[in-house]
Amino acid sequence: MDQYDALLVVARNLQSQLLAVQMQDAQQRRVSNALTLYQLMPRSVSPQTINLQIVDCNRLPALCVH
User: Does residue 1 fall inside a structural domain?
Assistant: First the structure.
């Protein structure tokens, strides 16, 4: 009976170690997947500068020729 109990303790320890490793692997996969998705996301581009010039065509009609 003592041998059975000792084997049961060893088996439970191995099982808990395996579960801990599996949890670490799962977390590592989640982080890796998140980083992959982030890298695949389109990058935002800063808006381009628009130069806007307003001209009074009544005062300077030569500048308003199309």
Answer: yes
